[in-house]
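Action item from last meeting closed. Structure (273 res):
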């Protein structure tokens, strides 16, 4: 039976709080997800110079953007606590990595790594991630076909996830048919779907089209402060998401040739002459 792997993307929706992160992990487990994912970056490297001093309204007051990014960044103490928290739980955690020091940092946990859409043009980073994990995932949002092809050929990812990087993504721009394009072009790579749209139906469609991985953002409440909550799914919605995907997995079957199943045989006997 098909078993789609489901990632609850916590990302930065913990807002710098380990306790919120644990609650989001718990929601992921209750929903039945396989993975919960965070984001790891080195703000001094990742934040462009022209943005570092810009002021931003935050829960900590009006502070420079670079200080805000540092406040929501988990370091070794927080990650050690989170990995210990899930040690005997039925879920695995890992992170998207935004720079080479973050790859080196996350590699100590021997977890999968993901390169987000914004960075698949950084071939050096992608190769470094490939060298430091047994499971590499990339997303394809905001990228050209040439950039995607170059990345796949350079770093040989295990999973390629179709995505639209608009938050939230307009349904008419999701281009789910691109899933079939990826499956045909890269038959030896697992194809997934990372959604940022409102609702769940288009994610269900992606699973029915053959995606073997699914990623959606998870939040405790979509009204929380932060940039990603608006394009996220709340815990009750995530339970519906996972149940729907598991129902699709069970419904996919084995294809042809057609056989009559036990339940049908009773109808066959009563209705056919």
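Sequence:
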């Amino acid at each position: 039976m098909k078993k789609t792997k489901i990632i609850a993307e916590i990302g930065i929706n913990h807002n710098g709080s380990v306790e919120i992160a644990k609650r989001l992990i718990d929601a992921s487990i209750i929903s039945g997800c396989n993975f919960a994912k965070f984001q790891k970056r080195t703000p001094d490297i990742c934040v462009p110079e022209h943005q570092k001093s810009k002021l931003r309204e935050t829960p900590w007051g009006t502070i420079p953007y670079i200080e805000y990014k540092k406040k929501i960044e988990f370091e070794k103490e927080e990650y050690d606590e989170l990995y210990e928290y899930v040690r005997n739980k039925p879920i695995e955690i890992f992170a998207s990595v935004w720079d080479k020091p973050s790859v080196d940092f996350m590699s100590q946990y021997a977890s999968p790594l993901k390169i987000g859409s914004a960075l698949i043009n950084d071939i050096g980073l992608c190769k470094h991630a490939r060298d430091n994990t047994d499971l590499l995932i990339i997303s394809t949002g905001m990228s050209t076909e040439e950039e995607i092809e170059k990345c796949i050929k350079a770093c040989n990812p295990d999973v390629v996830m179709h995505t639209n990087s608009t938050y939230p993504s307009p349904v008419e721009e999701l281009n789910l048919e691109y899933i079939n394009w990826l499956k045909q072009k890269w038959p030896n790579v697992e194809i997934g779907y990372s959604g940022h749209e409102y609702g769940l139906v288009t994610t269900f469609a992606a699973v029915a089209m053959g995606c073997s991985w699914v990623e959606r953002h998870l939040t405790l409440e979509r009204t929380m402060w932060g940039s990603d909550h608006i394009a996220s799914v709340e815990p009750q919605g995530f339970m519906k998401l996972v149940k729907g995907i598991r129902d699709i997995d069970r419904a996919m079957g084995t294809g042809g040739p057609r056989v009559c199943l036990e339940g049908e045989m009773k109808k066959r006997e009563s209705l056919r002459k």
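Note appended to the action item: The chain has one domain: 5-271.
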